[in-house]
Amino acid sequence: MSNRVAVVTGAGKGLGEAIAREIAASQVSVVLAGRALEPLERTRERIVSAGGTAIVKRTDVTDAQSVAELFDTAEAEFGRLDVLVNNAGVTAHVNLDDLDESEFDRIFATNVRGMFLCSREAGRRFAAAGSGRAINVASVFGLLGRPGFSAYCASKGAVVNFTRSVAAEWAKFGAQMNAVAPGYFATDINAELREDDAAMAKVLRRIPAYRMGTPDELANIVAYLALQAPDFLTGQTIAVDGGESSV
Ligand SMILES: NC(=O)c1ccc[n+]([C@@H]2O[C@H](COP(=O)([O-])OP(=O)(O)OC[C@H]3O[C@@H](n4cnc5c(N)ncnc54)[C@H](OP(=O)(O)O)[C@@H]3O)[C@@H](O)[C@H]2O)c1
């Protein structure tokens, strides 16, 4: 019986839901965070009906006060924190010339500032406990450049290098930070792309496995990093992309 506790951001749908369910299946109590309550409640119901434990906390990861309340709630409810998954993220497909400041700021506020705020809260608790794990959901777009995605690619590149830097700080007190870089997984974030046959054909030609991943394939590796990986593994970004970043 594990009494570990995890916070997963963006846990109402897509990859975050799959990650939360996979972690909960290992008897870890999960705090499900996101802005919309309804999808979070759905994830909670699925976890509970599978025999797991989860609570919902409405959170905007861009807001420091909201993030502080998320971690206070986790602590008040479960008394400890072992795992943080920084999964919440947004994207936009727009060329640089048409990219306005508010869109750029929205992407960085969620993908970078949100990760920073959650990691700082978790890191303070991990330092006090002398252990803890954070996993950041970066992207293959953080390893490669892609036209039309400059803000998103830059934000996910920041995730990769934030992971290296924080891992080096946290190693001093026995906590780890790693990242995963998903390739294409069918979720709401790429719903528009999947409706465009020509664009999809172009995407598939770039993926040696010639398919999208399934959310459980990503959830599996995140759960491994969160719960099983050796402490000596830290600061790394693991691409889960059907080979896309290898060619
Ligand atoms: N799917 C892919 O192919 C793919 C590939 C590479 C990387 N990724 C990354 O994987 C992560 C999950 O994406 P997904 O594909 O599962 O997309 P998704 O289905 O659109 O889910 C995104 C999640 O992030 C949450 N979120 C967004 N802004 C937030 C905020 N300010 N505060 C709290 N939560 C927020 C959303 O919930 P609310 O809107 O309710 O807050 C939602 O649960 C993202 O970081 C994304 O960049 C995905």
Topology:
Layout: E1 5-9, H1 14-24, E2 29-34, H2 37-49, E3 54-58, H3 64-78, E4 83-86, H4 101-129, E5 132-137, H5 150-170, E6 175-182, H6 191-194, H7 197-205, H8 215-227, E7 237-240
Parallel strand pairs: 1-2, 1-4, 2-3, 4-5, 5-6, 6-7
Helix pairs in contact: 1-2, 1-8, 3-4, 4-5
The protein binds NADP nicotinamide-adenine-dinucleotide phosphate.
NADP nicotinamide-adenine-dinucleotide phosphate binds next to helix 1 and helix 4.
Question: What report would you give on this structure?
Answer:
The protein has one domain: Rossmann fold, CATH 3.40.50. It is an alpha/beta fold and 247 residues long. A seven-stranded parallel β-sheet has the order 3-2-1-4-5-6-7, sandwiched between helices. The mean pLDDT is 97. It is built from eight helices and seven strands. The longest helix has 29 residues. 47% of the residues lie in helices and 15% in strands. Bound molecules: NADP nicotinamide-adenine-dinucleotide phosphate. NADP nicotinamide-adenine-dinucleotide phosphate binds next to helix 1 and helix 4.
Q: Ions, cofactors, ligands: which are bound?
A: NADP nicotinamide-adenine-dinucleotide phosphate
What's the total helix number?
Answer: 8
CATH architecture: 3-Layer(aba) Sandwich
Structural class comes to: alpha/beta
Classify the helix fraction into a percent range.
40-55%
Do you know the CATH topology? Answer: Rossmann fold
Oligomer: single chain
Percent of residues in beta strands? 15-25%
Principal-axis shape: globular
Straight-line N-to-C gap: 42 Å
Rg (CA only): 17 Å
Beta-strand segment tally: 7
Order of adjacent strands in the largest pleated sheet:
3-2-1-4-5-6-7
Overall pLDDT confidence: 97
SSE ordering: EHEHEHEHEHEHHHE
- Main β-sheet: number of strands, strand sense, barrel status? 7 strands, parallel
Runs with pLDDT <50, length 5+? none
CATH class: Alpha Beta
The CATH superfamily title: NAD(P)-binding Rossmann-like Domain
Overall number of structural domains: 1
